[in-house]
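May I ask for a single protein's sequence together with how it folds?
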Amino acid sequence: MLRTKLLVSSLDEIPREWVFEYYLKLPVKLTGQDEKIKSVFKSDDKVPSLCIYYSKPVASYRFKCFSSGYAGDGVTLIQHMFKLTSRGESAHKIIQDYNQYTLSGNKEDYSLREFKVQTRYKVSKFEKRSWMVHDQKFWNRFYIGSALLEEHFVFPLSSYTMTKEIEGVEQELVINGRNIYGFFRKDGTLYKIYQPYVKDNKFIKVRDYVQGLDQLTMKVPYLVICSSLKDLMFFKKLGFKNAEAIAPDSENVLIPDHIMQYLLPKYKGTCVLFDNDEAGIKCMAKYKEKYNLPPVLFTMAKDLSDAGEKHGLYKVREGITPLLKATLNTTT
């Protein structure tokens, strides 16, 4: 006889950790720590790009996949994993699967699990250094010189220190490297660290900031939203006098709504120029859906600065000019 008292009928009765552990087949139990695995949305993912993390504001686990651009809670995860049409359909599947799981004798009392949210390492110190020849070689590959780097407050670092507290004891991790760059605001505040030759943690976010915001004049008719500060600086090298550019913290993160609402009326036209891979295209679609901003699909290379490295300034300008004119509806 079916023991109906074991069945659940609401998501509220299902541990949020179970959703991630079960569907992602995690080898560990989630007890407050962060985990990083290869993307379940891209079979060719060579480097782990799907992050499962505990969010204190919502007191629950969430995920962010840098390969696909997907992010959200467990319901969103299942919706994308199984290509379901709505959150309701996703919730129904989770409830069904959880009931099947528990009826098979696998139920765990999550209230007995020891749960402790782990503190994360944060950048606590950094050391600037002088520019060297190897720095010049790296940035010159993208036609980015000292003037642009100074304009956007990019400086080389000899090291930075990551700190977190573990059981009341402060732990420090000092990172040294040959190509480490600090991205700063006009007031000298560090907002990001860039390590171009590091596979994991290529970017370390220190605080929120819309890149290029300090440099906007709002005296030209067009605004281009690029995917990164490197692409933004390369865009400036193309020499368009009637357009300026900004870039979000990450291609997968929308620029905050209050900033968009302030900026958009300042320009005659705005477009989005992200990477032409799956993640970039999906993110451009989000801007189209929310702000009705047209995307620019530039296919000469994966991103704008890579196109510059491979084909040079002239060919990139020649290739992207008609796309920008068509997208922004301008002939100037």
In short: The longest helix spans residues 87-106. The radius of gyration is 23 Å. The CA atoms of residues 77 and 108 lie 22 Å apart. The chain has a mean pLDDT of 91.
